């Protein structure tokens, strides 16, 4: 568990299932995502059970792990962060973040990812990156605000099942030393 005065990054709990299903099913939240938007409580509970079989940050290369973001005071779930270790030896990690619409535009995404980066870079992670749809302006703004470098633009790199179109993506990355320099700067 990682926490600040306001937020907690923790394992999912069965009690989160309803809120998790609600924001995942929200078409605006899912607009640039490839997940299903018709999940029910049973699916959400199964997903949470699967996630909790792997202790936070202790999984193998290639597996995605979902971390719950909750408000410290009430322990209410407000979103999640997915992380995937690409290469444990070199500490190359991909992440993605989702917030319930009700909790967007309040700085919680920036604060959650700052907590995550502080934790992962303190553990000697070498590099963290994220890939986002080229029109996902909130996501791009967040990644830039975190000081991440735009590393590449991918032409028609994923297929959007909803619109039945290939879409472009952008990749942003940050090295351990860049995060530490940014903090000391
Ligand atoms: C991507 C996503 C997590 C970004 O969330 P967000 O709420 O826009 O991001 P932040 O937490 O950084 O909040 C940003 C805004 O909160 C505002 N804000 C309000 N109160 C604030 C506070 N106390 N502190 C900081 N910012 C605050 C800021 O002004 C900022 O707006 P600005 O960037 O226009 O200046 C969100 O849009 C989302 O969940 N999208 C759907 C899923 C998705 O597509 N994820 C991307 C996967 S890579």
Structure description:
- The protein has helices spanning 17-25, 41-52, 108-122, 137-145, 176-184; strands at residues 2-3, 7-10, 64-71, 77-87, 92-99, 127-133, 149-160, 165-175.
- It has five helices and eight strands.
- Strands 1-2-3-4-5-6-8-7 form an eight-stranded mixed sheet, with helices on both faces.
- The chain has 185 residues and is of the alpha+beta class.
- The chain starts with a strand and ends with a helix.
- β4 (77-87) and β5 form a beta hairpin.
- The radius of gyration is 16 Å and the shape is globular.
- The protein has a single domain (2-184), classed as Aminopeptidase (3-Layer(aba) Sandwich).
- The protein binds coenzyme A.
- Residues 29, 32-33, 96-99, 104-110, 130, 132, 136, 138-139, 141-142 line the site of coenzyme A.
- Coenzyme A binds at residues 29, 32-33, 96-99, 104-110, 130, 132, 136, 138-139, 141-142.
CATH topology: Aminopeptidase
Give the CATH level 1 class. Alpha Beta
Shape: globular
End-to-end span in angstroms? 28 Å
CATH architecture: 3-Layer(aba) Sandwich
Give me the secondary-structure category: alpha+beta
Tally of contiguous helical segments: 5
For the biggest β-sheet, the strand order reads 1-2-3-4-5-6-8-7
């Amino acid at each position: 568990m990682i926490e600040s005065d306001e937020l907690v990054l923790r394992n999912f709990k069965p009690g989160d299932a309803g809120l998790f299903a609600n924001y995942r099913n929200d078409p605006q939240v899912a607009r640039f995502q490839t997940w299903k938007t018709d999940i029910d409580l049973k699916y959400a509970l199964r997903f949470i059970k699967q996630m909790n079989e792997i202790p936070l940050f202790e999984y193998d290369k290639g597996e995605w792990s979902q971390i719950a973001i909750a408000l410290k005071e009430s322990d209410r779930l407000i979103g999640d962060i997915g992380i995937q270790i690409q290469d444990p030896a070199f500490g190359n990690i991909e992440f993605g973040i989702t917030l319930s619409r009700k909790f967007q535009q309040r700085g919680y995404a920036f604060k959650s990812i700052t907590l995550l980066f502080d934790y992962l870079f303190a553990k000697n992670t070498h590099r963290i990156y994220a890939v986002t749809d080229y029109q996902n302006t909130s996501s791009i703004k967040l990644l830039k605000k975190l000081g991440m470098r735009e590393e590449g633009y991918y032409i028609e790199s994923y297929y959007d099942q909803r619109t039945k179109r290939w879409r472009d993506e952008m990749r942003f990355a940050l090295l351990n030393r860049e995060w530490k320099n940014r903090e000391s700067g």
